[in-house]
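quick q for whoever's on today - can somebody do inverse folding on this one?? i tried earlier but teh output was garbage lol. tokens:
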């Protein structure tokens, strides 16, 4: 008993450390032994411990270092790859040594396997350093690479093994599927229940853009329905199971499986698979999801990088990797910026100042124990891209310390030793070397103590003996370090020293000489791509793999429509295989493709362009011919007929092969080939069709046919029965006449129809209405009824989606054409036009042009000969066709539209009009109903184009259609026709206004008066002119009303004056500005002004110091004026100027000078028009005191009296001019100039001399629109 008790030992320091580091494994694997100890035993053990301590005390300086006992994991036996049949179990084994005891984890394709979450699939065991993973009931999706990882405080190691699952039931599956059964429904029956799984309402190939939300879904039907039984629904992306996260949401309602991708990123692009697992098997469905880049904010910048990940995280260091984007922008990518953000904050800090070219960057300077996320931005000459999706969070911590977070106490730290100078690191190597940085890695020393160590890095330039410490300020905590700012092309050596509180250890062995530069080369260009047809919107592209490439990330495929030179990415996430299906292409378009490879160093050169390929569905073998019928029989041969296959496989049927066999006594012989070359008609027992893809399956055998000459009188059966233009309520049925007419010609046909579900007795004539599916047959008639044709159908009376009809188009040149479009064109498909369902071969009436899914039938010369029904059929399609009936009424309407298009007219809302504006300006305007931005206006006066200048101002507002032309004033020469000519593409329009005769002269006078009024009202002016009235006292009261103008307003002033003893006189009132003193003086109770007799006066009552200053008076008679001033500076006491009032009197001579100034008061016209050869005499009235001097001028040159010009001045009032026998040379601008000492004035007029003979030569309608 005592011997057994002595076998129980206490836990050692290393076991305690192992337990604390790997709590989960220790709690699961260790069996805690509970033992009851007697008091005597406890005392004895205490004595033994005391004795041992006394023995050790003399050697107290010696302490055993636990580090000498620990070592990193090591595989004694690695797992081996295995091949297993489907449905069997497989077990992977390995043996691992290491202390403390390593932690074991299994991975499938780098995804952690949680055996406890899937006990029905996996079993993981660990016993005595032997570990195993059992995979149960293997299937195809278990084929993968399985990694096993071992981790302890000293490090981590891993091994890999491949498992390949082969199907032992391939032949069986082929047989089952050939019978139309589902393989999953019969593979694994359990407990007497076999579940059949059917997936319907499947999601198609999907396209989304970054930032959008996309949902994929399928309806799953499981039969039979078992209460409370639910299948396992699993979603995969690129064969990797998806787990719910903030980006991925899954939902199973019991009938429908839905996957929702929130805020799409390019990382979400790939092949998505839905797998439904039941007890009886599984069913799957897959489709590709493409994620397009979001629109860039700045034109030409690259799109965001993708797939940012963190590797090799340590205490203050992590390596960030990413994948380059598919689109570099307007120029090549210059590099990338890496940003980091501490978890829990929103502050992003840029990690590198200079963009890095490699898609890999070591980030240093992290704070130990904190969590970080990272993102990457690309940069080119145009700018910086949007940031990528953020990485998963990573903790800056030593790998051996991560599991320590689970430790609830610090027992092992209490037992650690201190004061040990660490040893030298080992295995110092350069793991990465680029022209931007170099990364060093090493192993910690064996002798380091449990307080931890830090490191100093030293470098030496090749050829020198001097070592320089790189991180002098702060030692690093991680056994990784990135060195920047090294000289490119130079050679360096590196070594590492350890340090702790006890001191700095010895240096490690130096690395070899390392040349700073890129070690990873760009990939070589991929091989020539080959593009082949796949579907109406996709193409399959194959290419040769890049030969010289390291660490390949994948390939990007680009496409371009032929002739555009615009390249678009087909995938935004690189693919590693050398085959890719490019979706989302335009049906019928011609594309070329190219491929480029990418690794961490960058992009390869693009491959050569592929040959052009048209996006169309791939060609397949045609369907089976049907309805083999005997058309006519003779003594030694028979004529057979059959229906062409409903599906031609996307290519023309090139012919048919006929097989036959002999039937004797009801026993059929072997099949023989009737013809070795394909027949090109449908008239010739088993029939096989052939196209360029191959030969179809044979038709069903016909009934035995006897080769005997026909002598019957009834006609044979119609052949070639087929339908076109299937719509919801109609269908066109066509057929060919029988080969055998009987004894008389066929004179008519009967068409019968019945619903598909009705019996044979339900055949009815086509005059009755039917719905749903139809069957058709034909009866012929001569003198008797013939046999019915083969039954055609069933035909579903439903317009197929996307069906287009023939429409009539009239282009801008008035050309009439019929257009038919088809978006489902196949290779070899053609448009076949018919009139009255007979193919058009005569091109004299129609010209047919077909290109890129559109056919246009152009009428060469539309007339009544073209009336009828035109139809168009597209070959190599599923009966795509349409028709259009041209009637006489429709033809007339089209001809009218054609004429309007050939000779278009711009419509006017209003014809040209004219109105008089302020200042006497004249506005000519019109408005059009509609016009384009290209519409132009030509302004014409009397057939001469005029342009904008001093005289004319033009404006055309195309948004409202208003056209305007302004003239500041009208002159004599402005008599004639004003025209606006409009041109808008082919359309034209003209509008005119005639301005001549009395109407023009009246408008000119109104314009001159309006301008004079405007000028008059710019200063002080009369509102009510001078008038008089007689008062009861027999006095005459003169009065008028004047507008006084200030800077900001106008005010009306009444002026009146009482006159006594007036006999007869002429009174003038001139409006002038008041007296001014440093500004205009306003009238008030204290300051007044007025006229008394021959004097103008200004009176200031009770003057003050403020009234000092310089006073002036402006006198203006409408044309000239004078100014007088008086300086009232206030010398001495202002009271000297009359204590109560100050009166300033001004001599009347100033006012009189305005009244007696020389003036031309009337008599002269503004314009004179006179016929050539006649004499002109004009007289002007002159006023002024003293009598003015008189002279005449022509074009500002003074005239002298002679035989041609006679100048007179009579009675000091009348000045006259006479021009004898005027000629056109006498036309010009004349003036009567008068002058005296008070001023000068000129009366101007214009003389226009015309020749009546020249005017008769001008057409009467000249100048009219």
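ok took a stab at it. sequence:
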């Amino acid at each position: 008993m005592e011997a057994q008790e002595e076998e129980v030992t206490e836990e050692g320091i290393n076991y305690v450390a192992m337990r604390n580091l790997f709590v989960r494994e220790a709690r699961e694997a260790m069996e805690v032994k509970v033992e009851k100890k007697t008091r005597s035993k406890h005392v004895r053990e205490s004595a033994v411990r005391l004795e041992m301590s006394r023995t050790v005390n003399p050697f107290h300086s010696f302490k055993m270092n636990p580090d000498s006992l620990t070592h990193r994991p090591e595989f004694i036996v690695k797992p081996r790859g295995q091949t297993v049949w489907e449905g069997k179990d497989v077990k992977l084994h390995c043996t691992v040594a290491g202390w403390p005891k390593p932690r074991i984890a299994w991975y499938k394709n780098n995804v952690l396997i949680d055996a406890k979450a899937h006990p029905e699939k996996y079993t993981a065991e660990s016993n005595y350093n032997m570990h195993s993973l059992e995979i149960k009931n293997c299937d195809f999706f278990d084929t993968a690479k399985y990694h096993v990882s071992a981790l302890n405080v000293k490090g981590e190691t891993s091994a890999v093994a491949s498992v390949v699952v082969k199907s032992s039931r391939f032949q069986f599956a082929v047989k089952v599927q050939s019978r139309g059964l589902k393989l999953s429904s019969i593979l694994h029956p359990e407990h007497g229940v076999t579940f059949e799984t059917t997936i319907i309402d499947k999601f198609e190939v999907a396209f989304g853009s970054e930032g959008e939300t996309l949902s994929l879904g399928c309806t799953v039907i499981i039969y039979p329905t078992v209460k409370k039984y639910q299948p396992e629904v699993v979603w995969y992306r690129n064969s990797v199971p998806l787990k719910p996260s903030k980006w991925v949401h899954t939902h199973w309602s019991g009938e429908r499986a839905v996957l929702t991708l929130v805020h799409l990123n390019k990382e979400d692009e790939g092949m998505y698979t839905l797998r439904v697992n039941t007890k009886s098997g599984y069913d799957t469905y897959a489709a590709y999801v493409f994620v397009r880049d979001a629109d860039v904010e700045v034109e030409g910048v690259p799109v965001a990088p993708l797939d940012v990940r963190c590797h090799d995280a340590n205490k203050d260091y992590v390596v960030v990797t990413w994948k380059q984007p598919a689109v570099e922008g307007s120029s090549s990518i210059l590099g990338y910026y890496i940003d980091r953000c501490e978890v829990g904050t929103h502050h992003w800090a840029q990690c590198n100042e200079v963009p890095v070219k490699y898609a890999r960057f070591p980030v240093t300077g992290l704070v130990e124990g904190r969590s970080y996320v990272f993102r990457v931005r690309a940069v080119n000459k145009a700018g910086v891209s949007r940031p990528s999706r953020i990485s998963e969070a990573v903790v800056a911590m030593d790998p051996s310390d991560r599991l320590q977070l689970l430790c609830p106490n610090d027992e092992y730290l209490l037992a650690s030793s201190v004061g040990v100078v660490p040893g030298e690191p080992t295995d110092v190597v350069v793991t990465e070397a680029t022209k931007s940085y170099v990364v060093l890695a090493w192993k910690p020393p064996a002798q380091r103590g449990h307080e931890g160590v830090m490191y100093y890095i030293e470098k030496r330039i090749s050829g020198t003996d001097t070592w320089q410490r790189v991180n002098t300020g702060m030692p690093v905590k991680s056994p990784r370090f990135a060195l920047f700012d090294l000289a490119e092309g130079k050679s360096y050596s590196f070594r590492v020293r350890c340090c702790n509180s006890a001191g700095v250890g010895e240096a490690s062995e130096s690395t070899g000489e390392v040349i700073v530069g890129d070690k990873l080369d760009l990939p070589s260009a991929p091989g020539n791509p080959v593009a082949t047809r796949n579907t109406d919107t996709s193409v399959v592209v194959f290419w040769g793999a890049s030969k010289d490439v390291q660490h390949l990330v994948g390939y990007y495929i680009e496409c371009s429509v032929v002739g555009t030179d615009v390249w678009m990415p087909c995938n935004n996430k690189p693919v590693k295989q050398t085959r890719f299906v490019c979706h989302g292409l335009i049906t019928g378009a011609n594309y070329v493709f190219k491929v480029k490879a990418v690794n961490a160093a960058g992009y390869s050169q693009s491959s050569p362009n592929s040959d052009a390929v048209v996006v169309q569905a791939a060609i397949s073998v045609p369907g089976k011919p049907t309805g083999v019928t005997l058309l006519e029989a003779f003594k030694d041969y028979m004529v057979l007929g059959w229906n062409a296959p409903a599906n031609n496989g996307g290519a023309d049927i090139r012919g048919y092969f006929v097989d036959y066999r002999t039937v004797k006594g009801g026993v059929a012989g072997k099949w023989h080939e009737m013809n070795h070359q394909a027949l090109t008609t449908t008239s010739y027992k088993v029939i096989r069709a052939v196209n360029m893809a191959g030969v179809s399956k044979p038709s069903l055998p016909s009934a035995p046919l006897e080769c005997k000459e026909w002598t019957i009188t009834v006609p044979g059966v119609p052949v070639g029965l087929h339908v076109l233009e299937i719509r919801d309520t109609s269908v066109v049925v066509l057929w060919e006449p029988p080969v055998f007419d009987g004894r008389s010609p066929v004179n008519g046909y009967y068409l019968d129809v019945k619903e598909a579900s009705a019996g044979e007795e339900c055949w009815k004539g086509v005059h009755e209405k039917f719905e749903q599916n139809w069957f058709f047959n034909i009866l012929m008639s001569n003198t008797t009824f013939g046999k019915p044709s083969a039954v055609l159908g069933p035909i579903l009376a439903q317009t197929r989606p996307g069906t287009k009809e023939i429409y009539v188009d009239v282009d801008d040149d008035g050309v009439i054409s019929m257009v038919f479009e088809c978006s489902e064109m196949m290779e070899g498909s053609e448009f076949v036009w018919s009139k009255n369902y007979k193919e058009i071969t005569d091109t004299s009436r129609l010209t047919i042009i077909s290109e890129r899914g559109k056919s246009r039938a152009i009428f060469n010369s539309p007339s009544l000969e073209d009336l009828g029904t035109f139809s168009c059929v597209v070959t190599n399609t599923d009966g795509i066709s349409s028709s259009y009936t041209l009637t006489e009424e429709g033809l007339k309407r089209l001809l009218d539209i054609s004429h309007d298009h050939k000779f278009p007219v711009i419509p006017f809302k209003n014809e040209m009009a004219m109105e008089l504006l302020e200042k006497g300006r004249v506005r000519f305007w019109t408005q059009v109903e509609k016009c384009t931005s290209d519409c132009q206006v030509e302004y014409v006066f009397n057939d001469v184009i005029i342009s904008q200048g001093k005289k004319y101002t033009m404006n055309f507002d195309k948004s409202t259609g208003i056209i305007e032309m302004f003239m500041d004033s009208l002159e004599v020469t402005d008599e004639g026709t004003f025209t606006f000519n409009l041109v808008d593409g082919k359309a034209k329009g003209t509008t005119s206004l005639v301005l001549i005769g009395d109407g023009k002269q009246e408008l000119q006078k109104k314009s001159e008066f309006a301008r004079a009024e405007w000028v008059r009202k710019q200063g002080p002016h009369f509102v009510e002119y001078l008038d008089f009235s007689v008062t009861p006292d027999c006095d005459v009261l003169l009065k008028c009303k004047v507008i006084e103008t200030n800077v900001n307003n106008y005010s009306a002033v009444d002026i009146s004056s009482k006159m006594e003893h007036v006999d007869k006189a002429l009174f003038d009132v001139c409006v002038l500005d008041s007296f001014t003193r440093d500004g205009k003086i306003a009238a008030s109770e204290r300051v007044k002004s007025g006229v008394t007799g021959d004097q103008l006066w200004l009176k200031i009552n009770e003057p003050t110091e403020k009234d000092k200053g310089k006073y002036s008076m402006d006198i203006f008679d409408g044309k000239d004026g004078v100014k007088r001033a008086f300086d009232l500076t206030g010398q001495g006491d202002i009271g000297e100027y009359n204590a109560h009032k100050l009166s300033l009197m001004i001599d009347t001579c100033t006012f009189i000078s305005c009244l007696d100034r020389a003036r031309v008061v009337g008599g002269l016209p503004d314009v004179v028009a006179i016929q050539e050869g006649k004499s002109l005499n004009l007289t002007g009235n002159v006023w002024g005191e003293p009598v003015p001097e008189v002279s005449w001028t022509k074009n500002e040159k003074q005239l002298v009296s002679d035989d041609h010009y006679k100048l007179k001045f009579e009675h000091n009032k009348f000045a006259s001019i006479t021009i004898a026998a005027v000629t056109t040379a006498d036309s010009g601008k004349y003036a009567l100039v008068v002058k005296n000492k008070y001023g000068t004035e000129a009366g101007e007029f214009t003389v226009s001399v015309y020749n009546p003979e020249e005017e008769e030569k001008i057409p009467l309608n000249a100048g009219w629109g």
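fwiw The mean pLDDT is 77. also The domain at 719-779 is CATH 2.60.40.10 (Immunoglobulin-like). so keep that in mind when u check it
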